[in-house]
Amino acid sequence: MEATIGDKICIHGNVVGHADRNGEIVEVHGNKGEPPYLVRFEDGHTGLVYPGPDAVIVPAQRQRKRKRLASRPLLWADLPTAARRTNRGDLRARWSHGSR
């Protein structure tokens, strides 16, 4: 498992009823991005984490891409293929010209 500063970490609850814990990696103490990580959790708590098999790291690069995609207008090509298949040509014409 490798991480860099700014990556998000999600530690899934391993017992029924325990919520997931989400946080941001603020320091990497291992070599080449390896654990342990200093993590600032959503509740403000900061702690040293040695992630187990129930942890997932979301790279900061992927987070930026999601934000960038969310900030641009939705295009016809963004729709799922099934939604683009239609017998009504007027729907595609209205969508591609921007009048909804």
Number of strands: 5
Helix percentage: 25-40%
Strand content: 25-35%
CATH architecture of the domain at 1-58: Roll
- Could you name the CATH class of the domain at 1-58? Mainly Beta
What's the N-to-C terminus distance?
Answer: 45 Å
Low-confidence stretches: none
Report on this model:
With 100 residues, the chain is an alpha+beta fold. It has a domain at 1-58: SH3 type barrels (Roll). The chain has three helices and five strands. The protein has helices spanning 60-71, 81-84, 89-97; strands at residues 8-11, 21-28, 37-41, 46-49, 55-58. Strands 4-3-2-1-5 form a five-stranded antiparallel sheet. Strand 3 and strand 4 (46-49) form a beta hairpin. It is globular. The N and C termini lie far apart (45 Å). The mean pLDDT is 77.
Chain-wise SSE layout:
Blueprint: E1 8-11, E2 21-28, E3 37-41, E4 46-49, E5 55-58, H1 60-71, H2 81-84, H3 89-97
Antiparallel strand pairs: 1-2, 1-5, 2-3, 3-4
Note the main attributes of this structure.
alpha+beta; 25% strand; single chain; globular; SH3 type barrels; 5 strands; 3 helices; 100 residues
Brief characterization of the structure:
The chain is of the alpha+beta class and 100 residues long.
